[in-house]
Amino acid sequence: MENSYRFFENRSCQYFPCHKGLEALNCLFCYCPLYHRRQCPGKVKSVIKAGEKIKECTDCTFPHQPENYEKIVEILRAETKSPAALNVLIQKAGIEELENIHQVMTEAAKALAHHTLYICDSLAYVKQLLQTSGFAVTARTQEGQIVAVLLFRYPGQAEDNLGWDIGLLPRQIAQVAHIESVAVLPEYWGRGLMKQMLIYGEEWIDTGKYCYLMATVSPDNPASYTCLERSGYRHMLTKEKYGGLLRRIYLKETRTR
Questions:
Q1: What is the pTM of this model?
Q2: CATH architecture of the region 87-253
């Protein structure tokens, strides 16, 4: 390959090639820009050094594979996009925020033109999820107001586990995690908050235990399913769910299993 803005091979480097087995080795990301992430798409191990658990990336060639340039840029672009500019903070929220979380979900549902696009879960259901089977990621203003919510759930062997819909094996069902619900207040629509919460939330999921991330989206909600697709989720099938509502079912497989 020829050197360009997206590829650079430094054959004069004393360490070249720092990784073996690559036909073309991209030196552009010599120091991996994804090293700071708790979870990353590369082949990563963990080691204990001086009593501290750290990432060990000796066998990882992800940033040096030329075809991964766009993937890395997309991840970096998402990290530096809208929350800081909007003065919005992305963080986990606990059961103490239950009322505020459900209020955002309720208001978001009311603002939609068609009520079938998003079904707001009951307060009792959200409470149970936060207490026993999942967690919430929120976007909030500097003043502390929650303006967007994303719920993750570990469905286990439940009948509504989306893994059953796509034909996962029984042993794989326990490895499924759901994006259970996403709600954004209307005045914050179109600002990339769903993707920011998704990126943040995925880093809290133990991908050694949950390697199938799944979600459903209405076919009439292109903003949401486009966000999923740009985040690495694949459209597996479309079928009726939730009492006859048509839904697109999405899957993202993590590398660690």
A1: 0.68
A2: 3-Layer(aba) Sandwich (3.40)
